[in-house]
Input
Amino acid sequence: MKLIIKNLGPIKNNNQAIDLSKDFFVFVGRNNSGKSYVAQLLWAIFNEDIIHKFARTNVEIIDNKIVENINNVAVTPELIGEILDKYSLFLQEETKRETFNIGKNSQVLNNIVIRFEYEKSELSELREKEIGGIVKIKDNEGNTLEYIEFKKDQGDLIYKFIERQLPESMKEIIPKKYLDRDLLDKKKFFLIATIIRTMLKHYHETFFLAASRIFFSTFYRYIYEVDRKRREQDIKKLVDLLENPRKKGNIQLSDLEELDFKRKYEELDFKRKYTEPMNQVFEKLFSLEENIEGHYINLVKELQQILGGEIKVIRPEGIGVAELYFKIDSVDEPLPMYLASSSVNQLTTLYLYLKYWALEKNNFLMIDEPEVNLHPENQIKLINILIQFIQNETGNKVLITTHSSMLANAINNYIYLDVLKREKGFNVKKIIEENKLKYVDSSISISQDKVGVYFFTGDKIIDYERSDDGIYFRNFREVENNLDNSLRILTDYIYLQEDEVEDE
Output
């Protein structure tokens, strides 16, 4: 499936579609050209919670005009088109209000256009995919009960729902008419959510690391305290409004808008002054526990080599957020993060993500300018880690925005390795050893088909040129060639002047 965006920040007259099926996205271009906007938009599009929110609030899409029998739903191009069109409209409002967290009158996202396109071949892929699952609920004693089974067999486009028999005790707690209504809505919800997930190839746990992440590891505890005090103030204001309505007459909508509340997945939450992807990182830091997921420990160890040590998580006694320290390999005493280097602070949230937060499969990691504060050699090592993150049938995706020609060249090198290994049949390990090549690993490669490179001009997006063997990073090459040419001409003048002096 492909995405077309217009009127998102500086991006206005854009007709270039972004292929959402890619596994490794590279956004390049000038400063302030909209790369981070689009990265965070993709965070929203693939986000499972947002997909669920849309499906839950749009069950009316599945009505009798489209579906005759809710227990055997035939998925048609018309139904897919209806769902995707409504999802586009939903995202246009959701991203403005929640994802980017800006006012309804903001010009940054004014008249944003989000459109999805898919080809007939994708419908064939959907037909051949086997899908299934069970919806579960809990009774009043906390026991888990199977509620609905849904499945789609390989080779057809019929989604089947099978209702499980609930115990009589549940029917006594919940009246039958409400149970039947919930059952119907649950079927519609899962059908809508499953179709969106399938068109996106997977559901994904999205995670975005902003370029300003260098400050997160040092100042997140300060942000926590500021948030706590703001929440206390807002709660006090709300209590005052509820307890003393007569002082001001009826409570006005403007009174409530002054409070930083928002509705989040059916719960009342407090609104922070950040984008929702950044807010997600702070929530992870505030609730950090030393429960290691362990799915990517090999990548954590590689990252420790770049850091020259490891990040220690220490939770003080009592209530409070965890404290982070940097333990240098050669020193026993851990350092507070404000004494750690800029590169360590820059990579801390990525370290925590790989060690504590990344799921076993179907992650979508987005990093704004991963090269910031890193030595060129460490930039290459970091790309090695990110490419490994999407390998081994994990279903993972990675997106980077970058201004680094070295990262671009490193990605191309691994595309070349893939061509040599899979298409030409070369022993790439032997090539690397015989030519003493550095900064390439024979065990790592990436197919060009999995890479999507997009250049942001300032008002539109351009798909980068490709050859049979790799991707030509035109803008980087132009700058490098101009620098090399300037260096050659200027040094020629120096040598020419020296020769003239010697002749005299």
Notes: Residues 48-203 form one domain. Residues 263-268 have pLDDT under 50 and may be disordered. The first strand starts at residue 2 and ends at 6.
